[in-house]
Amino acid sequence: MAGIVFEHPLWLLLPLLFLVCMRFCKPRQEALFFPGAAMLQKAFAKSRLGGNVVKFLIVTAFSLALATPVIENEVTVQNDKGYEISLIMDASGSMEENNKFGIVKEIVEDFLDKRKHDKIGLTIFADFAYVAVPLTYDKASIKRLLKRIDVGVAGRQRTALYEALFLSSNLFKDSKSKNKIAILLTDGMDNTGTIPLDVAIKTIQKYGIKVYTIGIGNPGDFNAQVLQYIAEKSGGKFFMANSVQKLKAIYDTIDRLEKSEIKANKYVQKKHYFQYPLMLGLLLLVGFFFYKNRGGAVA
């Protein structure tokens, strides 16, 4: 929330103009001197000072009201025409080596921060695959879950890569988005046989999903030919990473390649507060006139 701003700030000069006028715009009056006049002038001066202070407060309150104080809030309305992206992450035992899984989570969190107006889903696989988060705009919930997920959550010994690709593809079954993407990251090869590769490929083609595959680790840790094949069949791209810098660069590259041009609608919501100084000024004005007409003050 922003601070208070004024729609018509020039009105704030009115109190200054009032002070200048009080100093240099005094009316000329005929003077009449008689014994005891000095004492009477002192009494009048004190009363006049009090009256001038009240007048200044009245002018200040009205000037604040005329300047129109407001608090502006920028309201963002999310657009549902962005990308839909499924993140498919290997959480098998080998991802524990050199803290690979922890590094991937940090990079994925940074990727999530960049995809403000997209739906994101998360699928985890190891001995078996499961959808951890369906497609959602709620990036905060995905980030909270990522902090709690670690290697071993789906087993440690095997790699159900094709099963993960198949389950993730079914997230898009009812999707109407024109931009469907999956990012599949692994450091191993499928060795469960629960879902045939051709079935997984047909599913991603059926729903029009572009798959970016990422093999991390040393050559031979993963099946580069299969990952390349999945990417080619879906219209995506295959990447290899053997360092943190390369892995981060890959996610940055995917972010640029699939940058959504859909922008969220933004509105400025204004809340006006002119009524408060206006009410104060009116109360002071009524009180001043009431007091003056009772003879208790001198204008």
Structure described in brief:
Helices cover 43% and strands 20% of the residues.
Q: Can you give a write-up of this model?
A:
- By secondary structure, this protein is α/β, with parallel strands linked by helices.
- It folds into two domains: 4-74 and 267-293, no CATH class; 84-257, Rossmann fold (3-Layer(aba) Sandwich), CATH 3.40.50.410.
- Helix content is 43%, strand content 20%.
- The protein has nine helices and nine strands.
- The strands form two sheets. Strands 5-4-3-6-7-8 form a six-stranded mixed sheet, sandwiched between helices.
- Helix 7 links the parallel strand 7 (210-216) and strand 8 (237-241).
- It is rod-shaped.
- The model has no long low-confidence stretch (mean pLDDT 85).
Structure class: alpha/beta
Strand order of the largest sheet: 5-4-3-6-7-8
How many structural domains? 2
Using the CA coordinates, give the radius of gyration.
Answer: 36 Å
Average per-residue pLDDT, rounded, comes to 85
- What is the CA-CA span between the terminal residues? 43 Å
Q: What is the CATH fold-level name of the largest domain? A: Rossmann fold
> What's the CATH architecture name of the largest domain?
3-Layer(aba) Sandwich
Largest sheet: 6 strands, mixed
| Run of helices and strands | EHHEEHEEHHEHEHEHEH
Tell me the name of the CATH homologous superfamily of the largest domain.
Answer: von Willebrand factor, type A domain
